[in-house]
Specification:
The complex is a heterodimer of chains A (about 260) and B (about 250).
Chain A (H helix, E strand, L loop, with lengths): L2 H21 L1 H4 L1 H17 L1 H4 L1 E2 L2 E2 H31 L4 H5 L5 H30 L9 H25 L3 H17 L12 H8 L2 H14 L6 H25 L6
Antiparallel strand pairs in A: 1-2
Helix pairs in contact in A: 1-7, 3-5, 3-7, 5-7, 5-8, 5-9, 5-11, 7-8, 7-12, 8-11, 8-12, 11-12
Chain B lengths: L5 E9 L5 E10 L4 E5 L6 H9 L6 E6 L2 E2 L4 H6 L1 E4 L11 H11 L4 H14 L15 H13 L5 E5 L7 H16 L3 E5 L3 H7 L2 E6 L2 E7 H7 L14 H10 L3
Parallel strand pairs in B: 3-8, 3-9, 6-7, 7-8
Antiparallel strand pairs in B: 1-2, 1-4, 4-5, 9-10
Classes of the chains: A mainly alpha (about 260), B alpha/beta (about 250).
């Protein structure tokens, strides 16, 4: 396949997924917006007014980057894990891709692009909603870093969702990882607090949580400071992407769980 | 001599559960042929098709499509193939036109080319008035025709039909065979697996019979029928067509 044909194939996968995402917007966009509104209301407005400030900024402004990031990563993950699982089990339409001349890396890029688009779109909507809860005083330090972290985080979790989708043998397996792995990692990754407010031992535990680095890098883009260096955060993000691409390439190339 | 459409050498497949599906199968399908691959359920037909199209990993052996090795030149080999699988395998929530146009996209065909081509294929296959309806609303026969349209959208040189008429009524089967015969006459190479042996007998130039992972007969339809022609007076009970008798003779448990 030449470059133009590769682009057509990638565009086809992206277009198909975007059409699906918008067609079922009640399932793809609305839940995150409602959940985020509740978080903003409870943690930001109700509890936030009692907490006051966190690291010198109003608690509501502190919590916004984490909640936007939470929306991005859960949606990017859910999109690839479910679409892949659905095409593998419900209709076996994954065969349409497997018989095509698309190389494995392009299939991965196609699935991931859908997850990234959904993650970033939902993140943008949640960010817009957050403006109303911060009284139009949302701090933005570096918009390029915000956008870069939104996209890179969506890539990480779309890739992770794809691994889940490949391995999943039932719908339960699609739900188990977000419930028992993703949610705890997100809550303990510093969405609602600074790592400096934790005991020393808990801080060390947090350092092995990848979500901590994503949230802090993203928060740096809003507030101009974070619990850890932006370079360390970026390094962790890039390393995660490299490892997950490697795993996905191995899975799709060998056809593990796809081909007999 | 032209390059064969499909060349299989010493193909072996052992599934992870230990089942040996193919035992060093070798097979060649000439370009432009209408080839029947027949065998009882579980004989290895779908495994051969799966390996050729990239749906099943082989254990050993080589497979080439128009001279392109499926391991070394995967993309070039796949570009030549159109597959109508045994099972319905498209997203039922999509419209037929989108299913076919998206498949074209996976082959790198832009929408500006794919849409008119898909509309023509669907119309030719009698789905012109259904192309914008949900695929879920199609009858079983219509779904089969949709799969044929999808398999032809990349204008393959080699069409593989894995039991395409299973569960399809007589009238529709005939119209499908007429359509496929026209394609064959225009030079398309077709590999067909079917349990309707009389139809295979009429349509196909060559036949291979596979049983328990081994090719037990392979040749022109005429030669195979003549070679295994039986004394019908000695047979009792219901008898089918000539090919059916040959098939039973070669695949029945001794």
């Amino acid at each position: 396949m030449n470059t133009y044909q590769l682009w057509i194939s990638l565009y086809t996968m992206m277009r198909k997924d975007v059409v699906r995402i918008f067609r079922i917007w009640v399932q793809t966009f609305l839940p995150s917006v409602i959940t985020s509104c509740l978080y903003f209301l409870i943690f930001g407005t109700v509890l936030g007014s009692r907490i006051g400030t966190m690291q010198g900024v109003p608690y509501m402004q502190f919590v916004v980057p984490g909640l936007v990031m939470m929306a991005i990563l859960t949606n990017a993950y859910a999109n690839t894990s479910f679409t892949f699982f659905q095409s593998k089990f419900f209709a076996r339409s994954i065969d349409e891709l497997l018989v095509s001349p698309m190389p494995p890396w392009l299939m991965i890029a196609g699935f991931v692009s859908g997850g990234v688009i959904r993650g970033v779109l939902v993140g943008a909507i949640v960010l817009i909603v957050s403006i109303f809860f911060t009284g139009l005083h949302l701090a933005i330090s570096n918009i390029a870093i915000i956008f870069l972290y939104a996209v890179l985080t969506a890539i990480v979790f779309a890739l992770a969702g794809l691994v889940n989708g490949v391995y999943a043998k039932s719908l339960d397996a699609i739900n188990i990882v977000p419930t028992f792995v993703l949610t705890p990692l997100t809550y303990l990754g510093g969405v609602f607090y600074s790592i400096h407010s934790l005991p020393q031992a808990a801080q060390y535990v947090t350092y092995v949580n990848p979500v901590f680095y994503l949230i802090n890098g993203f928060r740096f883009g809003f507030l101009g400071f974070a619990d850890i260096s932006i370079w360390t955060c970026t390094g962790v993000l890039v390393a995660l992407i490299a490892v997950l691409i490697g795993i996905n390439m191995y899975l799709i190339r060998t056809g593990l769980g796809l081909k007999q | 001599m032209s390059t064969p459409a499909l060349s299989i050498k010493d193909l072996k497949k052992t599934y992870s559960n230990g089942v040996v599906a193919l035992k060093e199968v070798s097979l060649e399908i000439p370009e432009g042929d209408f080839f029947a691959l027949l065998g009882p359920n579980g004989a290895g037909k779908t495994t051969i098709i799966g390996i050729t199209t990239g749906l099943v990993n082989k254990t050993s052996g080589t497979v080439s499509v128009f001279g392109h090795d499926i391991d070394q030149e995967t993309e070039a080999a796949k570009m030549q193939i159109g597959l109508v699988g045994q099972e319905i395998n498209f997203n039922p929530f999509e419209k037929p036109i989108n299913i076919v146009v998206n498949q074209a996209g996976y082959y790198g065909i832009p929408r500006s080319t794919a849409i008119p081509r898909a509309e023509k294929l669907l119309t030719d296959l009698g789905l012109g008035d259904k192309m914008d309806k949900s695929a879920m609303s199609l009858s079983g026969g219509m779904k089969r025709r949709l799969m044929i349209a999808r398999a032809l959208i990349n204008e393959p040189r080699f069409l593989i039909l894995d039991e395409p008429t299973a569960g399809v009524d007589v009238e529709l089967r005939r119209s499908m065979w007429d359509y496929l015969s026209r394609l064959s006459k225009n030079g398309l190479t077709i590999l067909l697996t079917t349990h309707y042996l009389e139809e295979a007998e009429q349509l196909c130039k060559h036949v291979a019979i596979i049983n328990k992972g081994e090719i037990v007969e392979n040749g022109t339809m005429q030669d195979v029928l003549e070679k295994h022609g039986s004394d019908e007076s000695k047979q009792e009970g219901f008898r089918g067509g000539k090919l059916e008798e040959v098939f039973l003779k070669l695949t029945s448990e001794k």
